[in-house]
Design brief:
Blueprint: E1 3-8, H1 22-30, E2 32-33, H2 44-50, H3 54-57, E3 63-64, E4 72-73, H4 91-97, E5 102-107, E6 118-122, E7 139-140, H5 144-151, H6 159-164, H7 171-196, E8 200-205, H8 206-224, H9 232-255, E9 260-264, E10 268-271, E11 274-276, H10 278-284, H11 292-307, H12 310-316, H13 320-328, E12 339-340, E13 350-353, H14 356-359, H15 368-381, H16 383-387, E14 391-393, E15 409-412, E16 417-419, E17 427-429, E18 449-452, E19 457-460, H17 476-485
Parallel strand pairs: 1-8, 1-9, 5-6, 5-8, 11-16
Antiparallel strand pairs: 2-19, 3-4, 6-7, 9-19, 10-18, 11-17, 12-13, 13-15, 14-15
Helix pairs in contact: 2-17, 7-9, 8-9
Length: 493
Amino acid sequence: MKTLVIGMDGAHSEAFSRGWTPYIASLLEKGTSLDLHEDLISRGWLEIATGKHGVDTGGLYDKPKANGSYEWDLSFSLTDIPELGDRVKPIWQVLGEKGVRVGIMNLPTIFPAPKVNGFLISGGGGGAPVVQAPTAELCYPREEHSLLAEEGYIVDERIVPMLVDKKITDTSEIFSIVKNKNEKRTNSFIRLANKYKIDFGFVVYKSSANLAEWLLLPEWKRMQDGAKDVDLGFIEIIRNYYQHFDAQVKKLHEAFPETELIFTADHGLTPREWSVNPNILLQELEFQKVNSSKTYTKQLIEIVKKAVPFSVRAALRKKKMINRALYSSITFDPKNTKAFCKTAGDWLQGIYINDQDRFGGPVAANEIEMVKSEIIKKFNESTAAKEHGMYAYSRKVSGSSVARLFPDIVVDVADGYLITDKVNSFVKPFTPPKGPLNLLSITKGELLCIKSHKPIAVVYNGSWAVEDACPSLDLTAIYDHVLRSFDVNRDGV
């Protein structure tokens, strides 16, 4: 194998500097880092897979349905991309057309498994069933389903089903399950990679690193801040998990010792420190008109949500009508609002112009650019925005039919700042619940850990075939690097 990408959901460089992963740390120290910046709107794994940003593919973490309403959509699958295979060519297609044999495992949103020159095992989510046991539709060739079953391969294990459906609340047991999943994935990948004699490999440990960091970072910060009641046993469990993960990477490297390794992720993770609600500034600048009754209703919903037991909240999220009501809710007067920010989690950092076409709003098509420019100017002149290093800008419009789903204005904030429409100040410090912030802290209804802009990107036993000079370099750089390492350009030439 010439090149192997090791993907770790939510991984950032600090995760491997605690002394828990000596083998990974040794590879990272000898490798070369690439300074990336993700806008946290575009899906990172899709950027690596297609070499295109979400403004070109529609691969956003969440997006408006743009059907004249304020309904939102959190789903996405590879097959949703317009002109897939023509204007947008996945990495396995470009490499395969040049005779490069590929092996891809657990890449999210790739379902059903497409035909490739080699093998491909889809990841859970993004249209794929979130299951434990692999199905034939997750595999190409389909017959490799039997090999995965023989290995005991586990497609996915997620925290909410473990807590709610399986009623597993012991942290040690949860991470034992995750460690087993990682080990089965490593063994299965090595076996298939050798069977198909692949030239390019891409294996993603999706929910594992993300879960570990998501749970660890709030309590880790408390420890660094000198808290007296830190749950050291909880931290020890996650340290033990990382030691096991370190062994999996060592096993991969020893199986393919001459291979160029690329360590990367779809985003980083960081403790939440601030909340930012762009709607408040839009109201102050008179681009948004408040609807008091809707604001009161949404605040009441948030209060009730926190009072409802976690297991009940998790069950309600599965109800489409309830989900639709929550994600379609707005707090502004739609007829007298020119712009708004709507959030469903920690993955939308932008403002939409309330135009007639997408939302049935008051802004005509020929007024959009003027309103957008005025908001950007006034946002960036805001004293609070300057004090907190926030910056609003407009991304270059793509010719894709799905570009209209991308926010008209991107709001760039520092790591630790959560953009949310659920606080009553433009910028507000976030106070986490009282600790210890261990596993059960996720049941409190607050986002304690959020995505960060800088995913890990390190190449070992090679050098980056991309320019590390552009301040907006994102994960599409991984796609470009891989193609260039096989002397192929984006057109497959």
